[in-house]
Amino acid sequence: MNRGPNWGELPALVLTNLYQHLSYHDRLQVSSVCWHWRSVLFQPRFFKDIHFDVARENNKKNSFLLQSLAHIVSEAKISFDSCNLYDVELATEIMYKLSKSSCLVSLSLRPKYATLVTPGRFYSEEEWNYIYKLFVEPIKVLLGRQNPPLKELDLGCSEILSLHAADFLSSCSRPQLLKQLGFASVKQDPSHYALSSIESTLFEKCNALQYLSLDYDIMCDDFLQTLQLLPLKRLVVHVHGLDEEHPGVSEGAWASFRAKNPQAELHLTLVCAYEAVDMLHSHILRPSMPLSHLKVLFCERINCDALEYLSRYYKETLKSMIWVDSMRIQEYRNIMEMVLRTEQDPLVMMAWRCKKLEEIVIHGYVLDPHNLVGISRLRGKDLKVLEVSRIDLSMPSVMINPFIEEISTQLGQNWVPLDAKTLPPALGFYPVSDDVRDQYILRYIRNGVAA
Description:
It holds the Pfam family F-box. InterPro entries: F-box-like_dom_sf, F-box_dom, LRR_dom_sf. This is F-box domain-containing protein. The chain is α/β, with parallel strands linked by helices. The protein is built from 17 helices and 12 strands. The protein has helices spanning about 10-20, 25-30, 35-40, 60-70, 85-100, 125-145, 160, 165-170, 220-225, 250-260, 280-285, 305-315, 330-335, 345-355, 370-380, 395-410, 435-450; strands at about 50-55, 75-80, 105-110, 150-155, 180, 210-215, 235-240, 265-270, 290-295, 320-325, 360-365, 385-390. A 12-stranded parallel sheet has the order 1-2-3-4-5-6-7-8-9-10-11-12. Strand 1 (about 50-55), helix 4 (about 60-70) and strand 2 form a beta-alpha-beta unit. Helix 1 packs across helix 3 (about 35-40) and helix 14 (about 345-355) packs parallel to helix 15. The longest helix has 20 residues, at about 125-145.
């Protein structure tokens, strides 16, 4: 009697070839046939990255991922509640195990808040030792490996970890292979924080670096002169406070950087920069900056001079302009007084002059619907995103509707302003905690990085 084929004994090579023709979902379904088929699934070619979402309820899942995949994936992302000491320590356990991986070349941390809780006081020696042992040491182990070398490191905008940036670079065994470094931060207290220090010479050997994020406090002419020697495609700079002794970056330094790196884009982000926002056009922006993306997040005022500056000097580079504040009730009167109405609306001028502009986001300020129509006509379908939450309330809704229809027609998509139901909680009328605001900031910044 002839027996049929024993599908459970198919050679691993045959199964591997079969899996290569399936989608990720179908591959998982097929691998559930039996233990043998399942075992063939766990190969580096089928699992490039892994995401650990650290929480008590995910302990079993994370244990399985560590056991089955941590040794074969090349990219790892760790999300964790950075205000929960238990989750912080779980995250560091995962990092220590990943540091022993023979395949990992990319590590991305994703703390859910700007604050990283520790047993000690902020900036205390106890906190410093705790952070060093739990986070810095395993990252240095990864960076110190020769084979394979770590090529991508993102600290997830963690303030306390960014202070160790120099440590991380110094411990890198093969800096010439680094492609991405995320050292920029979001400060717990933007008006009072420790200044990090990174010698520009640490970047001299990073001759493959394409993406770099850091804080403006580090920037100066000499530092930018070193960066211009690197093949940067994107330079992300976060501005918080603006120290009186900060030398700034000159127009000449930016002109030289742009000449040496014509392909580089500058993403400039102001985060709760309550004082720096007023000096944005006079002390930070320079005509030769290759500025492509500007984000101004929760700085509590708008700077129309800076908006005008954008339209004058970044006609060939600007792609995105985002200015976000909340509309809390206690600030409502001030917001109403800051309606963007001038003889030449800077947003309209930006839409007219900036040839590559594809995104405008304004929250916390009342906008004139006539000017929004003008913006939509000038940019048309090239404007992929036009997001606002307040249109002049002096006009009845029946008069607003024709403006909305016209904007939708010009953009080639259904368009409406965000309202109380669709507005994120961090941007609403009611006071929210710093944690809610920080979560919004971190998501927004990370989305921008990924985009």
